[in-house]
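DM from R.C. (forwarded with permission)

"hey, sorry to bug you on a friday — could you get me a structure for this? deadline for the figure draft is monday and I only need the backbone to look sensible"
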Amino acid sequence: MKTLIVSSTLPYAGKSGVCLALIGLLEDRGLTTTYYKPYGTMPESEGGEPADRDATYIAGKTERRLSAEAATGVVTSPRFVEDVLAGRVTEQIADRVHEEFLGSTTDCDVAVVEGPSSLAEGQSVGLALCSLTELFDASVLLVDRPHRPALPDEVLWARECLGERLAGVLFNAVPASLAGFVSGAVTPFLERSGVPVFGSIPHDPVLSSVAVSEIVEALGGTVLCCEDRLDEPVESFLVGAMGQDKALRYFRRKARKAVITGGDRADVQLAALETDTATIVLTGSLPPSPLVLSRAEELGVPVVLVPADTLTAVERMESLLGRVRVHDERKAGRIRRMFEDAVDVTRLTDSIGL
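My reply, with the result:
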């Protein structure tokens, strides 16, 4: 059996989507795969037990369809964090995770392991990336998400730590403004440094969008109209805190957006409704005027009332947007197609001996 750990240089680089695409491609080639996530950081309750949301979904998509418990080593729930810090966890977590991994990967050709989101994550319990590669006798595919022109220090630091176990790097969600820099400067530099680059997947705003329903859930909102439009995607958000004339020009800059504003700003809300707006989020529990609700109903734009102030709502929106959620079948299929188009899969599989 071959084991490939898909890890990243920073959180929200798109590891889960890469794992899902890779598993599908390997199974199409006739290989039996399994999935494992030793260090879960997205806790949810599964049958009363803590589980990792992404791991639960991806494990169910593999040919073997492991349970959430079998596919995850530890989950960093608030209770787990408290127990570790207080010294109440006395077991050798790394040893247990290794045993569970071996039990979950019997009779398969390839184990795709979703690794930590940085070189340091998991260090407190012995599950950092460099430790996991030795524990699982694995190769590593490192996913990097460039945000600005910069030296690839994290990738080279990973090479120092991992040595020959680093199969190579994959650039993900690369903005159009950085595509030339990544392909023309960073990629040749890494190749000369002995780090194979398997591809560069462009940024896709559809993948990083969220549904209006996710915004409602995250902000604890109440939907005032158009409940049948909560599946609409939101690709960006704008804050409405200006006069109506300026607001109209401002809102025309973005399509498929959420507009966050105070419930008493009817002028701003009406301006937003004249542009491509997916939802209006009203802060401070201040309800809108009947005129705004009537116009929103007419246009099919959900209006959401939230108790948070505007600053808090903005902070929560920033944490929502930009993360690729793989639990959407349409997004999963899109990720798969983009992966196939941009990644040298043969070179990647050859690098781990497949």
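R.C.: lifesaver. Residues 176-192 form the longest helix (17 residues).
me: no worries. The mean pLDDT is 89.
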